[in-house]
Amino acid sequence: MLVPIKSKNTIDSPARGYDIRSIVNKKGSLREFYLEVYNKFLAAMNTAPAKGLAVELGSGAGFIKAFLPEVLATDMIAYDGIDQVLDATHMPFRSSTLRCIFMNNVLHHIPRADLALKEVSRCLRPAGLFLIVDQYPGFPAKWIYKYLHHEDFDDQVKGWDFPAKGPLSSANGALPWIIFFRDRWRFEVEFPDLEVVNINIHTPLRYWLAGGLKKWTLLPMALYPLAAQLDQLLVKQWKGFGSFMDVTIRKRSIEG
């Protein structure tokens, strides 16, 4: 069993791309947020089938290899440090061979999420896990995503698809909510072998206080534990305060 990841003062992953790493290295509160995500991936790996690859889709210029080197880091763009270039809607893996698939703020960038979900269903082993960490339009996050964020956000669209403008510019920030809340019935009809086992809504404030991927921050590392406790209290009182959600999906066994 893999053990929980401990915090690091800097991230020395070899990946380079846009200036994410230098920003994260300067902002301990943001490093802690990503560390929480990677520990969720780790927990999934500890409960998934033992055989098969664990794959992150859309690793980008991220730094999963610094924390979980055993995870295959993939992206549509050949960033330094990426193990394999691939498209999530046409994955090169054999059917029923992957033990885990991870996405961190990636699903809302895929113009044809239905095709990506079909590939996830095909590639996962029975009882394999698909863990999505993505945006949740709570309060006040919905208004931030809709009016202050640089990516598109439209929770009124009828379908799941949107125009493909390129891997870094295509987005609908409302897509995870649309799929797993508004159109949950469609997901269950189209992907009967994928079972949503848990949706965890979290992080009302601390990501925004940390400044996200901007260079500024209002949350020094010394106050991060207090901010985390406040966030937990807020979502305990009302899940509508959340800004992010974790969606854990398990591929049903052959018998199930």
Description:
With 256 residues, the chain is an alpha/beta fold. It has a single domain (20-251), classed as Vaccinia Virus protein VP39 (Rossmann fold), CATH 3.40.50.150. Helix content is 32%, strand content 18%. The protein contains 9 helices and 7 strands, in the order H-H-E-H-E-E-E-H-E-H-H-H-E-H-H-E. It has helices spanning 20-26, 28-47, 64-67, 113-123, 141-148, 175-182, 184-190, 206-209, 224-237, and strands at residues 53-57, 72-75, 84-85, 98-104, 124-135, 194-202, 244-251. It has a 7-stranded mixed beta sheet, sandwiched between helices. Helix 6 (175-182) crosses helix 7 (184-190).
Strand order of the largest sheet: 3-2-1-4-5-7-6
For the secondary structure, the number of strands is: 7
Instruction: Assign the CATH class.
Output: Alpha Beta
Low-confidence stretches: 13-17
User: Would you tell me the structural class of the helices and strands?
Assistant: alpha/beta
Work out the radius of gyration: 17 Å
> Biggest sheet: strands, sense, closure?
7 strands, mixed
SSE string, helices as H and strands as E: HHEHEEEHEHHHEHHE
Number of domains: 1
Q: How much of the residues is beta strand, in percent? A: 15-25%
CATH fold node name? Rossmann fold
Q: What is the rounded distance between the termini?
A: 26 Å
